[in-house]
Structure formats: structure tokens, C-alpha cells
Amino acid sequence: MAAVWTTGYPFAYERELSTITVRSFSGHVISDTMMRELRLKPRVYELSFQCPRGLSGAALANGPPWTRAMVRGMVLGNKITSMTVFHEVETLKEHGREFELRREEALHLGVALKASVLLSLRFRSLGCSLADWLGRHGLLKKA
After folding, report:
1. How far apart, in Å, are the Cα atoms of 48 and each of 6, 45, 78?
2. How many domains does the chain have?
3. What b-and-e string marks burial along 116-126, b requiring 16 or more CB atoms within 10 Å of the CB?
4. Cβ-contact 87, 102 below 8 angstroms
5. Is residue 142 part of a domain?
6. Is the distance from CB of 111 to CB of 51 less than 8 angstroms?
7. Distance from C-alpha of 133 to C-alpha of 108, rounded to nearest angstrom
């Protein structure tokens, strides 16, 4: 699918040096799906890279950063999907205790809210949707 990138401040503050480091991540959109964990079940992109804390709210863009990149969404965080690949339960007779061994594989993906979802949101403070407000101010370019 589409190559995308994002830039933000994950784990950015280094107290010993009193500096903030900007970090960028890139990869691909690997699915366009629904985020069932959220009440409104919005459409999201699953990303081929993890999005650490501090990257939430950053723009997800496509196209090289030195060009007029298009914003495709907003980073939410991560999603972990796991599955059991081995499971065994052992009971020790003399103590009557059970021990459980479980091995799991996990898939860690970044998650970004699709731009179309963001644009459709209505804000009381704006008195309209984000798309209407951006369009009124000449800040919205359709893909």
C-alpha cells in the first residue's frame, strides 16, 4: 500500500542534556480497517511501524518530506495483536499447584486515524466541520 511518514517528539526530552530530539518514522499503510476498540469505531490505517508515546497527534503524510506532502491522517498510537503458539498446564501433585506455560507471538502496528474521519468531525468552537473550516480559509486541498 502507500508509503507514509510521520515526525514528532517520542521520548524526546533528554534531561541530562536539556535537549529535545525530533524523530521521524516511515513505512507503509498495511491496512484500512475499523478501530473497534473506540466507541465510534472510526476508520484507521494500520502502519508497518510502531508509533511510540509522544508521537500521538502527529500528522501522517505521504510523499517525500521536501515536497508538498499530503496529510493522510493523524497518529493515534499502537495496536498489539497476539496469538498463542504453545500452551501447557502442569499440576504438581504434592503441592496441588498448577503452573501454566504460554508462548505467544505478537504483532505490533502503528495506528493512525484517517484524514477523512478527522475532516468530518464537527467542532462546537468552530461552528462547523473541520473540512468546512479549512476550506473556508483556503487550507484544504483535495487529493
Report:
1. 12, 10, 11
2. 1
3. ebbbeeeeeee
4. yes
5. no
6. yes
7. 35
Nearest to 31 by CA among 126, 111, 133: 111
User: Is the Cβ–Cβ distance between 109 and 30 less than 8 Å?
Assistant: yes
Percent of the chain with pLDDT over 90: 37
The per-residue pLDDT for 22 is 83
Write the CATH number for 50: 2.40.10
C-alpha cell recorded at residue 90: 502442569
- Measured from the Cβ of residue 96, the count of other Cβ atoms closer than 10 Å reads 7
Residue pLDDT, tens place only, 86-126:
777 666 666 667 777 777 788 889 999 999 999 999 999 99
CA distance 62 to 114: 13
Q: How would residue 65 be classed by pLDDT, with cut points 50, 70 and 90?
A: low
